[in-house]
Automatic annotation (TrEMBL):
Protein's recorded name: Uncharacterized protein
Organism: Vibrio orientalis CIP 102891 = ATCC 33934
Length: 34
């Protein structure tokens, strides 16, 4: 998967997530991809 696609996917997951731990994990992933 291309990086831009992954970033959009993770941002969408982040927006729909209500779980704080999941949000932190996704933010860390986005940080690594950036």
């Amino acid at each position: 998967m291309r990086k831009a696609v992954m970033i959009r996917y993770y941002q969408a997951r982040l927006a729909s997530s209500s779980n704080r731990l999941e949000k932190l994990a996704l933010l860390n992933l986005l940080d690594l991809l950036a």
